[in-house]
Fold this protein.
Amino acid sequence: MEDTRRSRLSRVKDAKNARNVLPEDCRTFNLDDSKTLDVECFKAEDLRPELRGCLLDLLEDNMKTQYEESGSEGWSREEKELEMFSRDSRQIILRDGEELIAFSHFRFDMDYDVDVVYCYEIQINNNYHRKGIGRFLVSVLEALVRTFNLTKLVLTVFDSNASALKFYSSLGFKRDITSPTDGEADAKYQILSKLNAELCKNHHEY
């Protein structure tokens, strides 16, 4: 039976209403042979102010320059704060005690009438690069796509972020049909996506 917009909306609604969304096998991360980190997922409304500040600080440290170089809008901490902690936003967080190691900001959403997990950020503390954390966070987001039978995982990457583009390509992400075309005015980013293969095997339009 053809997948309908109503059924897609229903799946997104179910995901948004779910409280504890992390699958059991995604609730810890082995940082190395001697340390295991707890993985938590918060709705924006449940984040303490000090943790919100830590998330914004990490985002600013990692991305401010890229935002400033990306176009006329530049970097605005206030706008990112509104985006990150809006009603439907969630944060997957890895911490070592009180030290923030990494996080992913995402939402369950409809994107051009398609039900998706939309990843807005994956940010990792510079001291913890090349430890498999980014790959792990993507795997958690993919697990959420499968758990709620959503169509795909979507994210945005600046054209200037060559390492991120290479990383996502290695994980099977493709340029999404909603991505700006090459040469489109003011577009300095790409929209990438990865399909839920089981759900979409008969839906080639995505």
